[in-house]
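User: I'll paste a sequence; please echo it back and then give the predicted structure.

Assistant: Echoing your sequence first, then the prediction.
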Amino acid sequence: GCFYVRFTINDPDNIGPAYVGNRAPYQKQIDGSLNLRGVDKDNPCLYIGREVSVFKKGLAIGDSLTQGVFNEYSGQNPGNVVVISDYSWPTLFEKMYGVHFDNIGVGGQSIESWWTMKQNEDFSGHDFAVIALGVNNATSSGTMWQASTTTAMNGIISKLKTENAGIKIFVCTTFAGGSYVNARFAEISQDIRDYVDSLNDPQVFLVDM
């Protein structure tokens, strides 16, 4: 099945165990070795950010949206793209929650091309990872989801698990905003949902954007 995660604390004075649930009315307690705090409730908007501190160091895998690529509308090179890592989501996440991220996002990469580029790098030293790829598979020049996409995702997840015992891996659908909203992006997001669901892996969770 496809698992997603919600961590919430409704009552700081009455903290219970954290749970992972799937889309059915079912809950499964996360591995107790994580010592997660908080209770999974029906409303994910109640999340206040404390529980993520259970993690120590994350690996951010993605494309330009992860790397921190922005369009430059002024300055010396208007119209160019610039990398401003201080405003990338992994950096902002780190500032908000105090959990360190290694950002290995690379702009312009599809799932397959990212894996080809990074498959020989060291992924070790992390207790969780976020995979935020797929946008460039869905662009007008993208190849959408193919057998090679599954192979690449399998490679990324296998390498993360091999090099980091017990790692928790969060796989995101594509960001539904700006120019990333059309049938192709909806399709690639569904492909990502179906892929995570097919794994039925207690270490891999869907983050449905």
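The first strand starts at residue 3 and ends at 5. Residues 1-42 have pLDDT under 50 and may be disordered.
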